[in-house]
Write a structure and sequence with these properties.
Low-confidence stretches: none
Shape: rod-shaped
Radius of gyration: 27 Å
Helix content: under 10%
Largest sheet: 4 strands, antiparallel
Order of helices and strands: EEEEEEEEEEEEEE
Strand content: over 45%
Number of strands: 14
Strand order of the largest sheet: 3-2-5-6
Number of helices: 0
C-alpha cells in the first residue's frame, strides 16, 4: 500500500522479504583402499560436532544442517582414517561425499612366558584403543596373534593397548608404545607375569 505513481514520473518501491532457509543434508560413504565399505566405523561432522555410526554399507547421513561450511572425519578402531576437507551446504541441498580411508596396518602380538623366551600358546589377547575394547584373538602355538588395524597417530594421543589373559586371568599387558603405520606390521612383545 501507499504506492502512488503520477503521470510522467518514476517511483521506486523497496520490498523486504523474509526468505526462510531450508536445512540441508550430507550422506558420507567411507571406503577402504579396495573400495569396500568401512564397517564398523564412525563419521564425525564438524561445526557442530556430531558423531554417527556407519552402517554396513559404510554410510551415514547427517540431516538438519544449516547453510554453512562443514567438514567430516571418518574413524575406524577409534583412529582417524580420512576426511572430506571443507565443503559448503546451501539451503535445501542434499550432498554426497566419499572418504577413501588410509591403508590398514597389522599388529602382530607375541606372548612369552615369564622366562622371556618360551611362547605362550592359547592365551587370549584383547585389543583396546583409547581404553575401548575392540576385539580379541587366541595365540597360536608360537604364542602369536595378528590383528588387522587402522593405523594410529601418537601425536593425536591415538594409542593401542594389548591385554593378555590365560585361564581367564590377566597375565600381562602392553599399554604404550604400540605404533601401527599404514601398510606395515608392528610387532608387540609381551612377557607374562
Amino acid at each position: 500500500s501507499g504506492i502512488d505513481v503520477n503521470s510522467g514520473s518514476t517511483y521506486t518501491a523497496s520490498v523486504t522479504t523474509n526468505v526462510a532457509t531450508q536445512p540441508g543434508s550430507v550422506t558420507v560413504t567411507v571406503k577402504d583402499q579396495s573400495n569396500n565399505p568401512v564397517y564398523p566405523g564412525e563419521a564425525q561432522i564438524h561445526s557442530p560436532y556430531l558423531t554417527q555410526n556407519l552402517n554396513s554399507n559404510g554410510q551415514t547421513t547427517f540431516t538438519g544442517l544449516s547453510p554453512g561450511t562443514y567438514g567430516i572425519e571418518a574413524y575406524g578402531d577409534n583412529m582417524l582414517i580420512g576426511n572430506t576437507g571443507n565443503f559448503s551446504v546451501v539451503s535445501g541441498s542434499s550432498l554426497s561425499k566419499t572418504i577413501t580411508a588410509v591403508a590398514k596396518g597389522f599388529l602382530n602380538v607375541k606372548i612369552y612366558r615369564s622366562d622371556g623366551s618360551s611362547p605362550l600358546a592359547s592365551a587370549t589377547v584383547k585389543l583396546n584403543s583409547h581404553a575401548k575394547y575392540l576385539r580379541e584373538g587366541i595365540t597360536d602355538s608360537n604364542g602369536e596373534y595378528t590383528f588387522s588395524v587402522w593405523p594410529n597417530d601418537p601425536s593425536k594421543n591415538e594409542q593401542f593397548m594389548v591385554y593378555v589373559y590365560y585361564n581367564s586371568v590377566e597375565v600381562g599387558r602392553k599399554t604404550s608404545g604400540i605404533d601401527v603405520n599404514s601398510g606395515s606390521t608392528y610387532t608387540a612383545s609381551v612377557t607374562t607375569n
